[in-house]
Amino acid sequence: MALDFALVLPRMRMFLTGAEATVVASALSAIFGTILGVLIGTLRISPLKPLRITAACYIYIIRGTPALVQLFFIYFGLPSVGVNLSGMAAGIIGLSLNSAGYMGEIVRGGIEAIPSGQWEAAQVLGLSYVKTMRHVVLPQALRNMLPAFGNEFVTLIKESSLLSTLAIMELTQVGQIVRSATYASFETFIVVGAIYLVMTSLTGMALRYLEKKWSVA
Fold first, then answer.
1. Cβ proximity of 26 and 177 under 8 Å
2. Rounded Cα–Cα distance for residues 174 and 101 (Å)
3. Closest to 45 in 3D by CA, of 37, 32, 55, 35
4. Residue 136 sits in which domain range?
5. Nearest to 57 by CA among 112, 1, 101, 121
6. Which residue has the higher pLDDT, 45 or 92?
7. Other C-beta atoms lying within 10 Å of the C-beta of residue 82
8. Per-residue model confidence as pLDDT tens digits over 56-80
9. Taking Cα atoms as reference points, which of 109, 103, 111 lies closest to residue 63?
10. CA–CA separation, 182 and 194 (whole Å)
């Protein structure tokens, strides 16, 4: 079977518009997911047991249920209790909450990898738990966690394809539209896959560069 990319390449502007929406949704989800993940991760090792249990339950639920179900719960379920969100807002919130569950475990592992001597030195200096975490532990842990954060961001770019189920005009949804218009399914999703590959590759390269720069600093 001969491939005919002439059917889909004239619609490249549509693909790039979809890719732009994918990048925006992924970047915002990564930012919010990281912020919430740092909070969840620090609560996982909190000296207060109720906070540890709450954070552990959150991670258990998020990691134990499909991301698609979580998106459907937010977009289709919340309106039944009066909370109506746009597809993009629901998608970003859903991806952020999902990512935070994984980020939380990354943060917990990074914090626990810090030598106990750092905690003891902070206590000798009279620093509180919060100040120790903020000024001593987290700055060191975040540097070690950067590769794992990078992997999670790349994963978010790929998982953003789930937003197509909410009728968001991201890359996968655009691919569906082009396929319906051209009937060139094979060619369309080769182009879609290639664009995803370019985005994840560039993201990986940028994160590796930042990792090297940070390790030298």
1. no
2. 29
3. 55
4. 5-216
5. 101
6. 92
7. 6
8. 999 999 999 999 999 999 999 999 9
9. 103
10. 18
Token code pair at residue 142? 């975040």
Structure token digits, residue 55: 């954070």
Give the Cβ contact number of residue 185 at 10 Å. 14
Residue found under tokens 């950067």 = 146
In the DSSP assignment, the letter for residue 126 is T
Give 162's contacts (C-beta < 8 A, 6+ positions apart): 67, 68, 71, 91, 95
Report CA-CA distances (Å) from 93 to 9, 89, 99, 100: 33, 6, 10, 10
Q: Are 71 and 90 in contact (CB under 8 A)?
A: yes
> In 160-184, where does DSSP find H-type helix?
171-182
32 confidence band (pLDDT: 50, 70, 90):
very high
- Residue 59 sits in a domain whose CATH number is 1.10.3720.10
Is the pTM higher than 0.90? The answer reads: no
Instruction: Give the pLDDT confidence of 142-185 residue by residue, as tens digits.
Output: 777 888 888 889 999 999 999 999 989 999 999 999 999 998 89
Identity (one letter) of the amino acid at 51? L
**Closest by CA position to 119, among listed 137, 135, 106:** 137
- What is the total count of domains within the chain? 1
With contact defined as beta carbons under 8 Å apart, do 101 and 40 qualify?
A: yes
